[in-house]
Specification:
Number of helices of chain A: 0
Distance between the termini of chain A: 41 Å
Number of strands of chain B: 11
Largest interface: A-B, 25 and 31 residues
Radius of gyration of chain B: 13 Å
Distance between the termini of chain B: 36 Å
Oligomer: heterodimer
Largest sheet of chain A: 6 strands, mixed
Number of helices of chain B: 0
Helix content of chain A: under 10%
Shape of chain B: globular
Number of strands of chain A: 12
Structural class of chain B: mainly beta
Strand content of chain B: over 45%
Order of helices and strands of chain A: EEEEEEEEEEEE
């Protein structure tokens, strides 16, 4: 069975500082990996996805993520965060017939 | 270029009433998924449907919950005799096909509050 672990429930970062959100997965085949962002009271917006090829994936809003098979990780990064990045971030694995399995999310707080 | 449309966005029901949540997938998508998000939790898969067929309902509670995706019209998630524990955000998503590499797009969610 597939599973996703986001070890950090809350992360606080100063505006302008760099960010890394951790995601570890377990999946029986080649993983399809996603990061979604959810603002309060809103739906999920896809930030980026990894299917194959280059292990460094660029997404929207200046985010990127790196797939590391040896570590079963797909960490999300941003070099300089903005106050508008404050939100809940979800890592997910699988898609289509397997359905998406989500982590429990990381709540990002931006300090001025 | 409408995305996944869900309605109502917010629904309040008294215990024992029925809740009906609707989802219109993105244009051209014939695969629909329902997820539930409880407070402080991630999203939990409930059911996967194609037109007129339930493909995987392994995440659906055995009682009171049902889902359909008729040939015409939106997908509907129905919760009968709601209880306080049903209060959650319910998200619908759709995709073009069922291959594992296909991206799933989410609606804005329907927030159910049971009082």
């Amino acid at each position: 069975a597939q599973s996703v672990t986001q070890p950090d429930i809350h992360i606080t970062v100063s505006e302008g500082a760099s960010l890394e959100l951790r995601c570890n997965y377990s999946y029986g085949a080649t993983p399809y990996l996603f990061w979604y962002v959810q603002s309060p009271g809103q739906g999920l917006q896809l930030l980026l996805k990894y299917f194959s090829g280059d292990t460094l994936v660029q997404g929207i809003k200046g985010f990127e993520a790196e797939f590391k098979r040896s570590q079963s990780s797909f960490n999300l990064r941003k070099p300089s965060v903005h106050w508008s990045d404050a939100a809940e971030y979800f890592c997910a694995v699988g898609a289509g017939a397997d359905g998406l399995t989500f982590g429990k999310g990381t709540h990002l707080i931006i300090q001025p | 270029n409408a995305g996944v449309m869900q309605n109502p966005r917010h629904l309040v029901r008294r215990r024992g009433q029925e809740a009906r949540l609707r989802c219109s997938p993105m244009k051209g998508h014939s695969h629909v998924y329902w997820y539930r998000q409880l407070p402080e939790e991630g999203l939990k898969f409930m059911v996967y449907l194609q037109k007129e067929n339930i493909i995987d309902e392994s995440g659906m509670p055995k009682e009171r919950f049902s889902a359909e995706f008729p040939k015409e019209g939106p997908s509907i998630l129905r919760i009968q005799q709601v209880v306080r524990g049903d209060s959650a955000a319910y998200f619908c998503a759709s995709s073009w096909d069922r291959s594992s590499g296909n991206t799933i797009y989410f609606g804005e969610g329907s927030w159910l509050t049971v009082v």
